[in-house]
Amino acid sequence: MKNTPPLEPETYYHIYNRGINGEPIFKREENYTYFLGKYDKYISPIAHICVLSFK
Questions:
Q1: Cα–Cα distances in Å, from 19 out to 12, 29, 33?
Q2: Distance, CA of 24 to CA of 11 (rounded, Å)
Q3: Residue 46 · residue 9 · CB < 8 Å
Q4: Cβ contact 28:34 at 8 Å
Q5: 3-class SS of residue 32
Q6: How far apart are CA 50 and CA 34, in angstroms?
Q7: How confident is the model over 6-51, as pLDDT tens digits?
Q8: How many CB atoms lie within 10 A of CB 37?
């Protein structure tokens, strides 16, 4: 796995999650909980998000 640089404040990033053919990204509740924990630790301290849903 590559070492990626950390996200920086005052910078715009386009980050998205999308399942193939509309499949759910998280198959189990534990996967979603794990993602939210990582989000809280690494993203929320430095970023604001906009959630869009297209169907």
A1: 23, 16, 17
A2: 29
A3: yes
A4: no
A5: helix
A6: 20
A7: 877 788 877 777 788 878 888 899 998 998 899 899 888 877 777 6
A8: 10
Give the chain's end-to-end CA distance (angstroms, integer): 33
Give the residue extent of every domain in the chain: 12-48
For residue 21, the SS3 value is helix
pLDDT tens digits, residue range 16-25?
777 888 788 8
Give the C-alpha separation, 35 to 20, whole Å: 18
Backbone angles phi, psi at 8, to 5 degrees: -115, 145
Q: What are phi and psi of 53, to 5 degrees?
A: -130, 125
